[in-house]
Amino acid sequence: MKTIFKTTVILFMMLGINFNSYAVISGPSPETETTIKKKKESIFTQLEVNEILTMSRTDIEAKVGRKLKLRERMGLKIVHNAVKKMNKKINKKRKESSAKENLFGIIGTAAGGLGLSTFFTGYGGFTLGVAGIVFGIISLKREEPKKIFGILGIVLGGLAVLLSIIWLLIFIASFF
Prior knowledge:
rod-shaped; mainly alpha; 2 domains
């Protein structure tokens, strides 16, 4: 119920609905009537939405040329708090998703690095090198944001496989 009320207040303020401005104004001339209506306009009709979201209260007051009314300050506070909450949620999702999005590239890099450090065992370096190549390729195919991890996985895995094969050939040649 509380969020519905807040949403309604924000919507009314964004649309510039000001119940006082709909009062019947009787003046001696049409010029006086427009002057009075301009004074009663809300800041939400005078400024763009992006300006309201990005500017502070003092900046808005300077731009409008008057102090904000209580209901305008309250509406501005509600809008600014809602924007802050949305930004926090977005930043939290970005932090969580960045590690998940680079998962295959990181696994490929780790497997390639381990394969490179264990190439002299023959099967360990070869197996981990192939895993590094596979995960690096998957990372590049999925178009993960940081391609360097996928490329490193392929390069380190390829070096691990190559050095494992060379080490195995030297080991076999030593028996003859």
